[in-house]
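Teaching soon. Got one?

===
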Amino acid sequence: MEVRRALHAGSWYPRYKPDLIRNLEEYFNDNEFGPGEEPKTLNKDTRTIIGGISPHAGYQYSARCAAFTYLNLFKERIPDTVVILGNDHQGYRNIALMKEGEWETPLGNLQIDTELSEKILDISNTIISDYSAFVGFPFENEHNIELQLPFIKYCAKDQDVKILPIKLGNKFIKDYEICEKISNDIANAIKSMNKDIVIVASSDMTHRGLKNADEDLKKFIRKDQDVIDAFIELNPKKVLNATSGTICGIQTIVTLMLSCIKLNASKAKCLKYYTSYEISKSTDYCVAYFSGILTK
């Protein structure tokens, strides 16, 4: 069985299990930027929270925000499978899924949901199976899907949760028609299966330097607020049109929204938004992070 290694452990997040657990405990229990509580499940029979947006920067900056997303996705019940919609910073040009195998994390490996991947491939004329999209130079250097995985293992505790990584090449970053097509494929595959499946869009928000912290930060946040407002309105086309162009994963957010709407989502909610400036006070380069969920 092919195993995709945790290539960014030790750089973007801790390499060793005790350090990673200690960090995740800190991020979840943070009362200022994090949710202020540990993840737990209510073991409900039904699910209403079906998707979420989670950032993917270095954990010291973005993990407290991501904790909100996973706390909520695992709150009602522990899902059978998490579909992760990722973007690409390495030049990948297609839309591909990882059909089979495992993905390593310091907390233990996560198996690919092969049943779901094969169902999507049967349905779709757009999504392909391409292992090279996830392994091998230069695409193995992409971090944005991998950074979601320790949260899944941490929240699942001892329960077996599978994943399905899907990479949306940046060729399609503003292509609404493609987002519509692949959201149809994903939603129809999920509907055909007797499984509890949730979807995560991996995306940070606006990126830019701040010459004047006070003035530039206001403009910076205002741009993101337009996107967040459109998300709350459950208007994916407006989300796409509102983006400033520096949101690295807008196609994942739009595809998430379209997929969840097709799965009967009727509400969207912002859980947390903050910028790296609030964490580090550095004006050299600022990135914003957003956690949002979609519910039936």
